[in-house]
Amino acid sequence: MQLADKIALVTGGSRGIGRAIAEVFAREGATVVICGRKQETLDAVAREIAADVVPLACHVGRMADLEKLVNTVHQRFGRVDVLVNNAATNVAQGPCLSVDDVQFDKMIEVNLKSAFRLVRLIAPGMCKRGAGSIINIASIAGLRPQFEGLMYSMTKAALIMMTQSYALELGPKGVRVNAIAPGLVKTVLSQYYWSDPQRLAGFLETQPLKHLGEPREIAEVALLLASDRASYLTGQVVTVDGGATLR
Ligand SMILES: NC(=O)c1ccc[n+]([C@@H]2O[C@H](COP(=O)([O-])OP(=O)(O)OC[C@H]3O[C@@H](n4cnc5c(N)ncnc54)[C@H](OP(=O)(O)O)[C@@H]3O)[C@@H](O)[C@H]2O)c1
Predict the structure, then answer these.
(1) To bridge 85 with a disulfide, which of 55, 111, 115, 124 should be the other Cys (CB 3.0-4.6 Å)?
(2) Is 184 a pocket residue for ligand 1 (Cβ < 6 Å)?
(3) Active site residue 152
(4) How far is the CA of 87 from the centre of ligand 1 (A)?
(5) pLDDT digits (tens, 9 = 90+) for 36-71
(6) Is the CA virtual torsion 45, 46, 47, 50 positive or negative?
(7) How would you class 102 by CB atoms within 10 Å of its CB: exposed for 0-12, middle for 13-18, buried for 19 or more?
(8) What are the pLDDT digits (tens) for 176-220?
C-alpha cells in the first residue's frame, strides 16, 4: 500500500490514462477524487473501480468549477496530497495556419491554465504541510513538434516548463513536481493513430518496444512519482514511450 492515507486528485479520471491512474492509486490505498465533465460517467467509473474513489464533475477549463471542486475536496478531506493534472483535449488538430483564436484559447484553458489554476488552489496547503506531489501529464509532442499539432505541442511544451519552474520554487517547501511524457497510448484521444492497423504498424516499425502503450503502463510510473519512493525526484520529465523518441 504505497499511497495509504493519501488523498489524490486526478483530473480526467473518467477514462484512458486518468482512469488507469485512479485505479492504480486506489489499489495502493489512496482515496482518489476523479473529475471529468459528466457526473453520471464518473459515478459509473467509481462504482466499477469499487474502491475509495470519489466522483466529482468539473470542467477544468472553468475557474468556478475548479474552485468548487477544490473547496469540496478540502471540506471533505482537509487536504490534497497528490495532484495529477491529466485532463486534456485536442480540438485544434490540423494545419497550423488554420488554427483560430477560439481553438487557441480553448487549448490553453483546458490543457495548460487548468494545471496552473489547480496548483494555485492546492499547492499552498502542500507547502504549509511541507509535503506533496504534483504530476503533470505532458506528451512526447511537448518535446518535439507533432505534425499538424501546433496547439497540442505548444501546450504540452509549456506544461513541461511549468513543471520545472514550480519544482524549482516549491522544492524547498517539500513539494515535488514532475511530468510524464507518454508516447502513443491506446485511448480515445489517440484513436486516429492506432485504429487503422496499417498506420499503427508503420508507427511501431520505428519504435523499439513493439507494442502500443496501455494506460496502465503510464499509471504505474505515476504511482512511483506520487509515492515517497520518489522522494529525491523533482523537476523531471519521465518519457514513457516505448523508446519512440530514440529515433
Ligand atoms: N493517449 C495518448 O497517446 C497520449 C499520449 C501523450 C499524452 N497523453 C496525455 O494523457 C492525458 C490523458 O489523455 P488520454 O489519452 O487518457 O485521453 P482521453 O481518453 O480522451 O481522456 C481524457 C480525459 O480528460 C477528461 N476531460 C477532457 N476535457 C475535459 C475538461 N474540459 N474538463 C474535465 N475533464 C476533461 C475526459 O473526461 P470527459 O470527456 O468525461 O470530460 C477524460 O476523462 C492527456 O493529458 C493527454 O494529452 C495521451
Answers:
(1) 115
(2) yes
(3) yes
(4) 4
(5) 999 999 999 999 998 889 999 999 999 999 999 999
(6) positive
(7) exposed
(8) 999 999 999 999 999 999 999 999 999 999 999 999 999 999 999
Cβ proximity of 130 and 79 under 8 Å: no
Of all helices (H) and strands (E), which one includes residue 33?
strand 31-35
Structural domains in the chain? 7-238 (3.40.50.720)
Residue 117: which of 11, 3, 230, 231 has the closest Cα?
11
Closest C-alpha residue for ligand 1 atom 19: 16
Ligand 1 in reach of 123 Cβ (< 6 A): no
Does residue 17's CB lie within 6 angstroms of at least one atom of ligand 1? yes
pLDDT at 123: 98
To test the pocket of ligand 1, the residue of 135, 187, 237 to mutate (highest count of ligand atoms within 8 Å of its CB) is: 187
Locus of grid cell 470542467: 59
C-alpha 82 chain-centroid distance: 12
Q: pLDDT tens for residues 75-108?
A: 999 999 999 999 999 998 999 999 999 999 999 9
Pocket mutation for ligand 1, best pick of 41, 65, 69, 86 (most atoms within 8 Å of C-beta): 86
- Mean pLDDT, the chain, as a whole number? 97
Cα end-to-end span (Å), the chain: 37
